[in-house]
Structures are given as C-alpha cells and as structure tokens.
Amino acid sequence: MSSSNLVPLSILFFFTLLLQSAIGVDPLYHICSSSFNYSSGSTYDKNLNTLFNQLGNKVPHTGFRQSSVGHTQETAHGLALCRGDVSTADCKSCVSTAIAEIKKCCPNDKAAVIWYDACLLRYSNVNFLGTIDSENKVYLYNVQNVSGIESFNGKTRDFLSRLTDKAYRSPKLFATDEMSLNKIDKLYGLVQCTRDLSDLRCKKCLDDAINELPNCCDSKRGGRVIGGSCNFRYELYPFVISKK
Question: What's the pTM?
Fold first, then answer.
C-alpha cells in the first residue's frame, strides 16, 4: 500500500517482524490524526492532559479505564487497556510510557492511538467509546513459515475462534490458551477486547480480526492483528505471562 492511499486514523499497515516474547519498551506502532489539531494551552489541551492523568492513575488497578473530559467539541475521549496477563507494575509503567510517547509522536493532534506489547492508549475529540474501531489496524507476523504441520491455517483459525468464545463471556474480555498441533508442536494464543465494548461487540470485533488471517499471517509461525478495539496473537512458543 502506498502512502497516497493512507488517510488519518484509517490505516492498514503491513510489515514483517520477528515477534519477541518479552514485553518491549518500544511501541509496536502508532497512528496520529493530522486532520484535527489543537493549540497548546487551549481548552482541548487542558482536557486532554486531565484525561491522561485520569488514565495513568486509574488503569493500573483494573487493567482498563475509559473517560471523557470536557464539554461539546472540546471534549477529550479516551481509554487505556493493559494486556490481561501483565502485572500492576508493568501496566502502570506501560501506560505512563504510552502517554509520554504519544505526546511526542502526535503533538497537537486531536486523535491518536498507540500500541505497546503490554498496553494500548487511544484518545479522540470524537466519542468512540462503546463502538468497534474497524479502521485502526496493524498486522505483525513472523517472517518464517510453518513446515510439517498439516492444516495449520485452519487449526489456527479454529483455535482463535474458541478463544474468542471464552473471551467475550469473561469479565475482562480476555482469554489465553494452548493447543497441541501434533506430537511436537503446540500453538499458544491470546485474544482481548477493550472493555468499553459490550460482550457481543467484542465477539464481532475479534471475529472480524480473525477473518484477516489470510491477509495477515498465512502459514506464518506467529502473527497478530492489533486494532483500536481488539487484538489477537498466536505463536508456536509460550509468550503469555504466567501468574504465580
């Protein structure tokens, strides 16, 4: 996709990446909106900073926070979500880092989203809370293809669909599991939605993301689709943080 096809906050970005099991300090990706801007010291600027303070202070305790600050067109709407298996300390660190980074990456933009391995941060002057974000989407995949595993794509799709059925029925809209593919190989997976979504909207978001598998991760040893409302990841090695 050439850059001429990209529009603010509506992007489908393809790139290869050898996925790491550890939670990284660098963002996976970010998207800024250049269509709507605000001035430093303006009402929106103040509302956005208040929003960031609320998200940074409240998210680590529950793993999710949504809020709206302000009135009329100057309202800042936003959410932050931590991966369901990260610790409170890692959650707090990730959200704090995301807030600092988005300020640098998208200065004076009224809408933006940034993804880390451990968290997601999104804000906008338009109230998106409770709706599925079908525009902001990023593919990541292992550059290596699978070998010696029959019907890998179909098994991966079925596996992620079963995880979706678990996730949308859970309070955290989050699920992980593992599955044997043969006597040697195991498949590990994770799915998650932002908790502003209803359970059925979570299911639809994940179902739509899983439908991207042929475009994203055909026969790849690992892959993920990350969006503004939900994400999935699968690997042939364990990457979920175990709770001890």
Answer: 0.88
